[in-house]
Amino acid sequence: MDAVQGYMYPNEVELQWSILIVLYPFITGLVAGAFILASLERVFNVHVVKPTYRLALLTALAFLIVAPLPLQLHLGHPERSLEMYFTPHTTSAMAMFGFVYLWYLMVVLVLEIWLDYRKDLVLAWRASRGVARWFYAVLCLGVDNISDEALRIDDKVGHTLTIIGIPSAFLLHGYVGFIFGSIKANPWWSTPLMPIVFLFSAMVSGIALVMLMYMAMSKLYRREIDVACVDKIAQYLFYAFIIDFTLEMIDLIHRVYESDESFRALDFMVHTRLFTSQIVLQIMVGTVVPLALLAVTQLFTIPSATRLRIYTVAGVLTLVGIFAMRWNVVIGGQLFSKSFLGYTTYKMQYVTREGLLPAIALLIAPFGILWLLVRLLPPWAPEPAAESGVVGKATV
Amino acid sequence: MDESRRKFLMGAGRLLVLTGAASVAWDAIVEGQPEQAPNYNTIDHWWGMVIDIEKCIGCGQCVRACKEENGVLLDDEHFRTWVERYVVDMDDPDHPLVDAPNGGYDGFPDLPGMPENIKTFFVPKLCNHCVDSPCVQVCPVGATFDSPDGVVLVDKDRCLGCRYCVQACPYGCRYIDPRTNTVDKCTLCYHRITKGLTTACCEVCPTGARMLGDLKNPKDPIHEFLRTHKVQVLKPQMATGSKTYYNGLDGSVR
Question: What is the DSSP letter of A18?
């Protein structure tokens, strides 16, 4: 038992939640953040970010489809997971996940995307033949009414949905934070700040992801980057990040000042086993550096090409930092004994069900889904000369 | 002997030995539904345990008996009960030296080279069968539940293996059994106590350091013990309503 230092209760030596459970809050955070960015345009009328509206929704959907997979892979009996829907235990924070997830997926995201794309889909239905025609007919649910009145109703319902969607996105990720924050047995997790910290870190990661995706997609499809749009997104990223960092620092200062019975153990852990992932990756590389970079773009006049490069670096580092934050919460919370007398080590497996390989596959999967979604539902407005997928062609 | 004749003889023999009511009770117990048994009413019992630290000698009999009785994995990372040895240096009482080699299964080796100014004692641990169990609270499908007689049990046919309850238990009493991929923990030998027996660990304890108690039975000696001793539960600040009471619990024990 070289991995153990000091004394762990014997049942604690093996970690219960692996890298897959790190992915779970990371991915749901990206979903919630991407959606909140999308809602900026629609509800708060920030029109300058409109070029990313549809992309943000599709990104959220692609990641949301993958979100339950790490949980499913992690379960000892995945075939019983539907029991959470059929016989949920009402006092369990975890039992609500299925319902929160379904609500968010079906009522908010799918419906909002469908309403937004309905006109495009109907036009594609009319223009296509054979199997594709059937396919689009099904996607349109057999309704091809795109009169001005119908589209006006679509827009109104979509607007209402977005308004419902914002608290839903808050609920989705605040709830994920609650799953950890409500465990009184674990002082590393147990804080009422946890849902709020999760929420703001979700916004940070989602905004950074959509910003990067927008720039990457524009490069990939040889479309001009709307610099004003990226500037605005970077600005929001900066603000959200400041709030997120402040909350995390409040939590840290509170813990240090209060110094309760768990403090000595947690402090030791942060200075040893979590030093690289917490101090170096999460706080320095993943928070202070991107915040400084974003601050530079806010304070100084910098040529747009350089600015975009800075945003790219800041965005990537932000994602690294938020991933490290999820890692430090999930894995860090299991490295110390609940006796506060010892520490264990996470031995990551590789080609096993809960290993690194499936984790990498699960991180890549949303991009594959997004690629499909973008082909099916091009996120940008059709341009006369644009060759941007089936719907785009149909609407030309 | 053919099958039907054997069945007849066994049935007849059982009828002779047991009364009709006891026979029904036996069937219910064999089926794992003691609450159906007419002579074991779950609502008539409320189980708890007393552990007298003054009496524990760290022999590990309880750990061995538990593993044997309940088929617990014989490695050093899965225990329904285990014993910890505390060595408290009186010059530094906040930092006790604690060990539990193989959960105390093999007893404890001597600790050479210890300073004079120390106190040592053994602390047996097991599921505290809390009244307000965090593990029961968090189970998403109700696979972990409170029995009406105050025992926290796991329905292995419902457990998802999500491990949330393992995280929620403040005492480290739960683990995933790799053979079933479901959670496992002390059942207070439910299969024994519902037949009027005591738990395996209490049965074999040579010093009587562990005592099963029925808190609803006014004649149970546990009442006298609790009245005449100053007892404490582990981590009282967790407010879990633990029903495992320790006599002589040192403040250094976590």
Answer: -
Class of the domain covering A5-395: mainly alpha
Contacts of A176 in chain B (CB under 8 A): none
Residue B34's pLDDT is what? 56
Could you give the domains of chain B? 3-40 (no CATH), 46-254 (3.30.70.20)
Domain boundaries, given as residue ranges, for chain A: 5-395
A40 vs A42: CA distance, rounded Å: 6
ipTM over 0.90: yes
Lowest-confidence pick of A138-152, A171-185, B33-47, B58-72:
B33-47
Which chain A residues are closer than 8 Å to B98 by Cβ?
7, 339, 341
Nearest to A76 among B79, B98, B176 (CB): B176
> Taking CB atoms and an 8 Å limit, are B137 and A92 in contact across chains?
yes
Q: With the C-alpha atoms ordered B143, B144, B145, B151, is the resulting torsion angle positive or negative?
A: positive
Could A183 and B172 be called an inter-chain contact, meaning their C-beta atoms sit closer than 8 Å?
no
Q: What integer pLDDT is reported at residue A381 of this predicted model?
A: 66
Q: How many residues belong to chain B?
A: 254
Residues in B 11-50 with any Cβ partner in A closer than 8 A: none
A301-322 per-position pLDDT tens digit: 999 999 999 999 999 999 999 9
For B122, phi then psi, to 5°, come to -110, 145
Q: Give the pLDDT confidence of A98-147 residue by residue, as tens digits.
A: 899 999 888 889 999 999 999 999 999 999 999 999 999 999 999 999 99
Measure the CA–CA gap between B203 and B192, rounded to whole angstroms. 11
